[in-house]
Amino acid sequence: MDMHTQVPENLDFLQRFERLSEQLPGTLYQCRLSPDGELSFPLVSAGMQKMFGIDAGEVMRDPGQALSRVHPDDIDALWRSIHRSALKLAVWRHEFRYCHPQGGIRWVHGHATPQRERDGSVLWHGFCEDITEHKRSQLALMESERRYRFIVEHVSDLIIMMDADGICRFVSPSVSQVLGYAAEELESQALVTLLPPDDAPRVQRLLHEAACRGEVLRLEVRVRHANGHYIWLETSCSPYVSPLNRRYEWLLAVARDITDRKRRDMRLHELSTTDSLTGALNRAAFMGCLESSLEAADHTNARLSVVLFDIDHFKATNDSWGHAAGDLVLACLGEVCRTTLRAKDIFGRIGGEEFALILNGQSLQEALVLAERLRSKFEQVRVEFHGQWLSFTVSFGIAERRRDESMDALLHRADMGLYAAKRLGRNRVQQALH
User: Fold this and answer.
1) Domain with 27 in it
2) Residue 350 within a domain
3) Residue 71 domain-assigned?
4) Are 431 and 398 spatial neighbours (Cβ–Cβ below 8 Å)?
5) Which helix (H) or strand (E) is 188 found in, with range?
6) Same domain for 108 and 160?
7) Do the Cβ atoms of 305 and 344 come closer than 8 Å?
8) What is the pLDDT of residues 298-324, one digit of tens each?
């Protein structure tokens, strides 16, 4: 092939190259680094004008036209990446900012493959594309993640992510302040183990039902602190249901420590239901407990006994020594009851000096034994009042509930037993006569 034939073919190749490169979203180029460190561009496609705002011919004649517009903060890193690629003949990939002639900063991604030439130069064949929009989105996402991470890391509430199996996949650093654990101690752990055994099944059921419905669940739960005690958390649980398969995959829980508020609420409840002098339930609270106990006994056919008792000649004590002395006697009676009764026995004050017990699961005979033990203790107690020792006795009436007996009927029979104890001389235990 002679020179006259080769020139037209080269021109035709370049024209076809230009037409092809015009369809690309970036710029095709060749870049050469000479042994003395001089950078040149033997070939640049027409996309240079659109992308960089500089004519391709100008760049091939004067490479400084393009290099001078690389962002000042990025130029050193760009040169280092070029020299690394040249030294190792490794594929060159780099992102940098470019100051466009028409104003504004563009982000550019370059990719090129190097080869060593006979004179020691390195020639790259590469492609550059404008990634400004992608980079802005990426930076915006990074900034958004940075803001959200800042919020999560500094919020005082506890933030937890759990999978569908209840395994903790993320917990905010505030867990150390709220529960005393380091975040890594709880990650990959089943959080249900932190709930009281009696509460765990109920909480799991509520979470499962809410997740199946895709509803937010708000509840108050007790959770074990790292020190072993339990605290109260007010929790909002939001399930994530996949739009693809409609299956529950994640649960986001945001919790706040409400232990102090809960204690105040319980104290207020205690004040509203408890007699402060004796520690017994007040009449309304006691009657509510009796009604609930009777309903429970109906379902389980369990035995239940009621004991009514009052202090003998209490009015005479008040008349002789004053109400302050009477209050001391009442307080002493309450102390004896609290230290003698079982945890499940229910103790109430239903009148001035009148008291009652609900003994769930206790027969008449068992109630008689307990009442006699209380009577004996009361008889032995001495109350010191201004250098004087006061004593008192108590009379008891007992009735075991009959099948389907109403609350009023049961109380009436126990009251008749108390009346009989009074009539027979006081300081005695008397069961209902009918």
Assistant:
1) 3-132
2) yes
3) yes
4) yes
5) none
6) no
7) no
8) 888 899 999 999 999 999 998 899 999
Cα 249 from Cα 54, distance rounded (Å): 52
Q: Both 338 and 425 in a single domain? A: yes
- 267 falls within a domain: no
Mean pLDDT in residue range 137-161: 80
256 and 289 together in one domain: no
Q: 429-431 and 394-400: which strand pairing? A: parallel
Active site residues: 353
Of the given ranges (13-27, 138-152, 400-414), which has the lowest mean pLDDT?
Answer: 13-27
- 280 and 414 share a domain? yes
pLDDT of residue 18: 60
Tally Cβ neighbours within 10 Å of residue 172. Answer: 23
End-to-end CA, the chain: 134
Contacts of 379 (CB under 8 A, 6+ apart): 391, 393, 394, 427
Average pLDDT of span 1-25:
55
d(CA 206, CA 95): 51
Sign of CA dihedral 370, 371, 374, 379: negative
End position of a domain, from candidates 262, 285, 309: 262
CA 182 to chain centre: 14
Structure tokens at 326: 């009477």
Total residue length of the chain: 434
Specify the number of domains making up the chain: 3
Asked if residue 406 is part of any domain, the answer here is yes
Whole-structure pTM value:
0.50
Reported as a single tens digit per residue, the pLDDT across 237-295 is: 888 877 777 777 888 899 999 998 888 887 777 777 888 899 999 999 999 999 999 99
CATH of the domain at 64: 3.30.450.20
Nearest to 219 by CA among 198, 201, 205, 237: 237
Share of the chain above pLDDT 90, in %: 53
